[in-house]
Amino acid sequence: MSEQAKPVVSFEEFSKLDIRVARVLKVSDHPNADKLIVMDIDLGTEQRQIVAGLKPYLDDPQSLVGRSIVVVANLEPRKVRGVQSNGMLLAATWEADGRQHVVCLTTDGEVPAGAAVS
Fold this sequence. Notes:
Helix content: under 10%
Mean pLDDT: 94
Number of helices: 1
Structural class: mainly beta
Largest sheet: 5 strands, antiparallel
Order of helices and strands: HEEEEEEEEE
CATH superfamily: Nucleic acid-binding proteins
Radius of gyration: 15 Å
């Protein structure tokens, strides 16, 4: 786990990020990629679609439906293998036992969709 440290950012730069809790409404396979899933999420005031590279790390991607996840809500939209993604799910990643592990960041209790993370 000796990942290189990233450059220091100012508080002003960090405060530009809109990190929010989102509720996963729907999960489907990406039509053009084996490792990607497409999620419809509820951000409290709106619903969006995001794309995430989680498929290799989940036994059952449908287990995300109904869960609260943490997302960067104001990331510039982009197409990922032809599918629009409007935000980014946050996850912890590490290497152990010779393989990559990925776990979605979630809440430690009931939190309304759209709640700000700071």
